[in-house]
Amino acid sequence: MIIGVPKEIKNNENRVGVTPAGVIELVRNGHTVYVQTIAGEGSGFTDDDYIRAGASILPSIEEVYGIAEMIIKVKEPIESEYPLIKEDQLLFTYFHFASYEPLTHAMIERKAICLAYETVEKIDRSLPLLIPMSEVAGRMAIQEGAKYLEKPMQGRGILLGGVPGVRPAKVMILGGGVVGTNAAKMAAGMGADVTILDNNLQRLRYLDDIMPANVNTFMSNEYNIRELLSTHDLIVGAVLIPGAKAPHLITRDMLKQMRPGTVVVDVAVDQGGCIETCKPTTHENPTYIIDDVVHYCVANMPGAVPYTSTLALTNATLPYALQLANKGWKRACAESDELLKGLNVVQGKVVYQGVAEAFGLEFVPAENVL
Ligand SMILES: NC(=O)c1ccc[n+]([C@@H]2O[C@H](COP(=O)([O-])OP(=O)(O)OC[C@H]3O[C@@H](n4cnc5c(N)ncnc54)[C@H](O)[C@@H]3O)[C@@H](O)[C@H]2O)c1
């Protein structure tokens, strides 16, 4: 198969879809790989690294899309890429369709095969291609939250871990999945007083078992969330309902209950956000303030640490990319329930229920398009 790796063009996105190590594996399996020039630069890989691994370098994004049967990238295509996408071209990348209707319509129109990293699902319902980025974003949420709690960044001016004789900051984490667990580990390690809320009691039992003593668990419901808002300094949004928009657990009126300088880091912003007042921001301009509450809502947090993120992501995506390249998407999806769940839009049809429901579009089961 002919595989294309374009350079990411979303604001401050420095990750790349395939590393030189991945190129070696793909070429060893008989495939041809074209990489756009300087696609790997932001992650520390030069064109020469790719050439030595067996790839060919193309000078423009148009040529990469023009030649490839399968595109492997990181973020969803942006508007300027839509016209480059060809009928029947396989796109293997993050899409997050449910949070952006124009992208869904554009991909339906292009009649491409959109296999979304975020909905590839294992039999235990875990999401193997979201996990590595969630690990990065969860850890970063605390690093960023701690920074924006500083007074010059318009935060409350409180040190996360406190000092002897002074209480540490209080961190509230909404959602105890991968992001939430990694955030809790970092915050706890820095000495903060941490509370994780989840609506899955089984998950709370597990977290209660494994977390250190400065992490408490709490059932997620409106009453409990309201109770914590006025005393917590840093709030991390980390809920997920797979393939659907995030529920607004903190509504606009609740901001009034928070103290001035409270920081919210809504990691779930890529699925619409679990804090009503969150709207996507970029690394160039990561925060804004509403009702004296600092909002950090960067939709591609791992993009700021591309070295770590590219390696973490491609460690997870490469085995699936190999299956797709070796068997073709139809056979690979027919033989793997994990990949089948990744299909979202196929040749003009919406084949992922959460996406169809989000925009009132007709749903066609993925099995029917194989
Ligand atoms: N902004 C970024 O750069 C970035 C990076 C990675 C992940 N994310 C996003 O972070 C979010 C969380 O991802 P994850 O991997 O941790 O998901 P996950 O599935 O591991 O965890 C989600 C958790 O939310 C819980 N949950 C669901 N409804 C809830 C509710 N009403 N109250 C409390 N908890 C609830 C679930 O029980 C689950 O434990 C996703 O939206 C993901 O797309 C964003």
Automatic annotation (TrEMBL):
It catalyses: L-alanine + NAD(+) + H2O = pyruvate + NH4(+) + NADH + H(+). Keywords: NAD, Oxidoreductase. Its EC number is 1.4.1.1. One of its GO terms (molecular function) is alanine dehydrogenase activity. Residues 149-297 form the Alanine dehydrogenase/pyridine nucleotide transhydrogenase NAD(H)-binding domain. InterPro entries: Ala_DH, Ala_DH/PNT_CS2, AlaDH/PNT_CS1, AlaDH/PNT_N, AlaDH/PNT_NAD(H)-bd, NAD(P)-bd_dom_sf. PROSITE patterns: ALADH_PNT_1 (PS00836), ALADH_PNT_2 (PS00837). It is an enzyme of class 1 (oxidoreductase). The keyword NAD applies. The keyword Ion transport does not apply. Residues 4-137 form the Alanine dehydrogenase/pyridine nucleotide transhydrogenase N-terminal domain. Belongs to the AlaDH/PNT family. PANTHER family: ALANINE DEHYDROGENASE. This is Alanine dehydrogenase.
